[in-house]
Design brief:
The complex is a heterodimer.
Chain A (H helix, E strand, L loop, with lengths): L1 H21 L2 E2 L7 E2 L3 H8 L2 H33 L5 H15 L2 H10 L5 H8 L11 H14 L2 H11 L4 H9 L4 H30 L2 H6 L13 H11 L3 H26 L11
Chain B lengths: L4 H39 L3 H4 L14 H8 L2 H34 L10 H8 L2 H15 L5 H25 L3 H9 L4 H12 L1 H17 L2 H6 L8 H12 L3 H31 L6
Classes of the chains: A mainly alpha, B mainly alpha.
Chain lengths: 283, 287
């Protein structure tokens, strides 16, 4: 099994090593890579305002979309877990958007829904509110992408549901007898007992939010516009590498992104000590 | 069997609460499914009906004309659908071929640092696809794998593999060693024992991984965009993107093409719902 396993490692690690080398070079795909040391990394942090714009856009997106999406997922999971009929049907219905979520098809629908003649404006018109082209307006374009991410709450919801089923019913019954209302039960029982699952979802969704690419690419037509307002980190990386053929610079950006994701993930684990509650039955 | 009045009042309250919850759930489902409904209903509209103000919620004349324009009479789209089918099936098969024995080896390795070997696969999960696309493009252009379906199968498998190994390993860990030893005593070799005894037991895991790999490869966009620049090898997601430029705001053909691309994922989900849900929860909940 050992050679098989080494092959597996090489398969995954090979491209990463190649990328690490590229990040230290000046490479336009045509000529051979020219070694430039840490120049790419220095340029990124000292003379590239668009780089900071892409970083800002991405962080705003992560900070808004993850809590919103997970709150929706948890709320619906708790509701669905209350012994509703047709649980599997609801589960399926809510999960399908998630499966299709990062897909090109749904992003195209989003262009229509939030466009000038789109569905969202029509709905606003019904209640007498003025519409606008949400995707072409720099102030609102990013929020349409946040909405798209919130809409895909299916997979964290399924994970929450699985976790909720493991909370013993007696806990709730005992609390009810002691006079705890539904809100108190939610905050005193559900949240603490579910905290390992909440933590798992937070870690996963933060990582995925940093990786978001397809929806921003399609909705902005590959530009990150209008006025760089949806210039996600990954999108800027793409345009530098495959649009301007600055492959070395893009590879360096890729490594910094990986480091950022790693730092956020590590921070999540550190903070978890203060709020995640593990029951002491050794699970 | 006589229930006291207090009990029946509680039961009535519980029923009312259930009804209210069901109502909320139905409304929530409605809102969340609406964009998908909108995709299908727009695809069935005639051009004249697309820009009425306010928009019509149902198409007044159901027309499949857009499906002809964008999909069935469109050679580029048909080629792309074929490409995506080949790439997704190829990715599924290759993922299973590599991950099934790979995860088995990882599960059976009884070394102190065997847990550590899982680390590269976990780190690989942190990688945005575009980070992978960059070096792959450089390597593939050396190897002549840019603009080839084989190249896309290899690239997609790199995406699915870490997930596959992480999902499969616990399935193998659940198999008692004695079972394989018994098979070995009966004269089956190690390979025979793996194929005849071990694989059938982990079949649910293999189905989960297979379905997921197919779905991931079918919806994959970043690798297709970067590694396939020629239309005759492009996966359908990339072709769909090029339609945005081609059709602009002609929403009917765009939505028709989008619907056709979305259908296989929905069908697969309906067929394999149980396995997909178990794949998602693997690793999050221990039971």
């Amino acid at each position: 099994m050992a050679p098989w396993f080494l092959g597996l490692l090489a398969f995954t690690a090979g491209p990463m090593l190649a990328s690490l080398y590229l990040s230290l070079t000046d490479f336009d795909l045509l000529s051979t890579p020219e070694y430039v040391g840490l120049d790419n990394y220095v340029t990124m942090f000292t003379e590239d305002p668009r780089y900071f714009q892409s970083l800002t856009v991405t962080v705003i997106y992560v900070v808004l979309s993850v809590p919103l999406q997970l709150s929706f997922a948890l709320l619906l999971a708790v509701m669905l877990n209350r012994g509703l009929r047709g649980l599997t049907v609801y589960r399926a219905v809510f999960y399908v958007p998630s499966l299709l979520g990062s897909s090109v098809a749904v992003a195209i629908v989003w262009r229509q829904v939030f466009g000038e003649d789109g569905l969202f404006n029509a709905a606003l018109g019904l209640v007498g509110l003025p519409g606008r082209d949400w995707i072409a307006t720099p102030d609102t374009a990013l929020y349409t992408l946040v909405a798209l991410s919130v809409w895909q709450f299916g997979s964290p919801m399924i994970i929450f549901l699985a976790g909720l089923r493991q909370i013993p019913r007696e806990q709730y019954e005992a609390a009810e007898i002691d006079g705890a209302g539904p809100v108190a039960r939610f905050f005193r029982i559900t949240i603490p007992l579910l905290s390992p699952i909440i933590f798992f979802n937070v870690v996963l969704q933060v990582i995925q939010a940093f990786q978001a690419f397809t929806s921003a690419f399609i909705v902005s037509g590959g530009t990150g516009g209008p006025s760089d307002s949806t210039l996600f980190y990954t999108l800027y990386l793409y345009t530098e590498g495959f649009g301007s053929f600055r492959m070395g610079y893009a590879a360096a950006m890729a490594w910094v992104l990986l480091a950022i994701i790693a730092v956020f993930t590590a921070a999540n684990f550190l903070i978890s000590r203060y709020w995640v509650f593990y029951s002491d039955d050794g699970k | 069997m006589s229930a006291g009045p207090g009990v029946s009042a509680a039961a009535a309250r519980r029923n009312r609460r259930k009804l209210a919850l069901t109502a909320v759930a139905v409304v929530a489902v409605g809102i969340f499914v609406f964009p998908l409904y909108w995709m299908v209903s727009t695809s069935l509209k005639l051009d004249t009906e697309l820009f009425t103000d306010p928009p019509t919620w149902f198409p007044s004349h159901v027309s499949f004309a857009a499906y002809g324009t964008a999909v069935f009479d469109n050679p580029q789209m048909l080629t792309a659908l074929g490409n995506s089918a080949v790439i997704s099936l190829g990715t599924m098969v290759l993922t299973l071929l590599v991950a099934a024995p790979g995860a088995y080896g990882l599960a059976r390795l009884r070394l102190r640092w065997s847990g550590l070997l899982l680390l590269p696969f976990l780190i690989a999960q942190l990688l945005p696809t575009i980070n992978l696309a960059l070096p792959l493009f450089a390597l593939f252009s050396q190897a002549g794998l840019v603009n080839s379906r084989l190249g896309l199968v290899l690239a997609n498998t790199m995406l699915t593999l870490p997930f596959a190994v992480i999902v499969l390993r616990p399935f193998y860990l659940g198999i008692p060693r004695e079972m394989e030893e018994a098979a070995a005593i009966d004269g089956a070799g190690r390979l025979q024992a793996f194929l005849r005894v071990v694989l059938p037991i982990v079949m649910p895991g293999l189905v989960t991984v297979g379905a997921f790999s197919f779905v991931m490869a079918w919806g994959e966009f970043t690798l297709g965009l970067t590694l396939a620049t020629e239309t005759d090898v492009q996966p359908v997601t990339v072709t769909l993107n090029s339609f945005i430029g081609q059709y602009g705001t002609q929403w009917a053909p765009l939505m028709a093409a989008s619907t056709v691309v979305a259908v296989p994922i929905v069908v697969l989900f309906v067929l394999f719902q149980r396995f997909i849900a178990s794949g998602l929860t693997a690793g999050s909940v221990k039971d």
